[in-house]
Amino acid sequence: xxxxxxxxxxxxxxxxxxxxxxxxxxxxxxxxxxxxxxxxxxxxxxxxxxxxxxxxxxxxxxxxxxxxxxxxxxxxxxxxx
Length: 81
Prior knowledge:
Elements: H1 7-10, H2 15-42, H3 53-77
Helix pairs in contact: 2-3
């Protein structure tokens, strides 16, 4: 799934569908950030980041926390991801 695939869910009048869009968007971004961090550490990025590895890794930690909170919320609200 790509970010563009979440547009219909994002604009839905159903809050559960909007929640799914939010979840999928964060998940997609987190996976891309984790892949970038791996390449950053290996020295194989095709560009030179302006941010330090540490700053990007901190962002990754917070995004993982966000996903965890969304997982808990989905359980409590009966939303199947």
